[in-house]
Amino acid sequence: xxxxxxxxxxxxxxxxxxxxxxxxxxxxxxxxxxxxxxxxxxxxxxxxxxxxxxxxxxxxxxxxxxxxxxxxxxxxxxxxxxxxxxxxxxxxxxxxxxxxxxxxxxxxxxxxxxxxxxxxxxxxx
Length: 125
Hints:
The protein is mainly alpha-helical. 65% of the residues lie in helices and 6% in strands. It has 5 helices and 2 strands, in the order αααββαα. The protein has helices at 9-22, 35-42, 46-58, 76-103, 107-124, and strands at residues 62-65, 69-72. It has a two-stranded antiparallel sheet. β1 (62-65) and β2 (69-72) form a beta hairpin. The longest helix is centred in the last third of the chain and has 28 residues, at 76-103. The chain is elongated. Pfam families: GntR. It comes from Spirosoma foliorum.
């Protein structure tokens, strides 16, 4: 995993974990990798992964079952989408709009390209 400088590593790992759940690679309600397993896989300190898991636990995306490990919550998909949607709307969208304005790109062009993207990804599946 390549980490970006502008965001805390534990938050980047949280995005990775969330993505694995959204993609179904780590099924809802199932056990996820242990702190040590994920730390080894991502080549980070286990304390960083622990911080990630605590953060995701606070969001109720994952839950710790004592002595067994961490599991994705039954409603993890909804929790992840809700959190990431809010983050996108607050943080990414204003920058996106700024770039559209600076570059003179219309919403109509964005809509056309979005439709092309959706069609391409739908046909690829």
